[in-house]
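Problem: given the chain below (101 residues), write out its structure.
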Amino acid sequence: MNTEEYLFNAEEMQSPFDAIKEVDGDGREWWNSRKLARLMGYQKYWNFERLMEKVATFLQQEKGLDLKEHMVEIEEMAQLNNGGYRQVKSIKLSRTAFGFR
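Solution.
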């Protein structure tokens, strides 16, 4: 067998979640809730928002965490189907809020 058959492209092996990960100016990793919703197959973002409400409740009540550190509302521009843009609210999710420990 050809050894090239065993070579893998690092991008092909990267987790789709790592592919959408962002890093802020302080080096903290975070995920955009809208990108995450699309990746997880949510057709409607508002369905994902309901999940985020449950995550927020869990982080506060069960883990005793401060949401301001793990789920921060941000505003960004989203492209519409007609090619236009509009401002939308998303959530900046920390590694903890996203589910990594």
